[in-house]
Write a structure and sequence with these properties.
Structural class: mainly alpha
Oligomer: single chain
Number of strands: 0
Number of helices: 5
Largest sheet: none
Helix content: 55-70%
Shape: globular
Radius of gyration: 12 Å
């Protein structure tokens, strides 16, 4: 594993950022595929998953619809 990858794996993100990434990965989508299917820019998805920006509610709604989960799923932390 590269040193950069090791560093990024140790970065702490918000529960929402982690949930967004976990759902995308669990559904088997790349960022580009999620962007195309949800009509949310790939750069926005990346920024949300890396906790650089707070997601817009309209984007969360689009992502939830694309992933086939209720909106509240993004805010459920087990």
């Amino acid at each position: 594993m590269s040193d950069i990858l090791k560093l990024t794996n140790n970065i702490k993100h918000s529960p929402l950022a982690n949930k967004l990434r976990a759902l995308r990965v669990a559904k088997g989508y790349s960022i580009a595929e999620a962007a195309q299917g949800s009509k949310v820019y790939a750069s926005d998805i990346l920024n949300y998953e890396q906790d650089r920006e707070t997601p817009k509610i309209r984007h969360l709604k689009r992502l939830a619809k694309f992933y086939g989960v209720p909106l509240k799923e993004f805010f459920r932390y087990d």
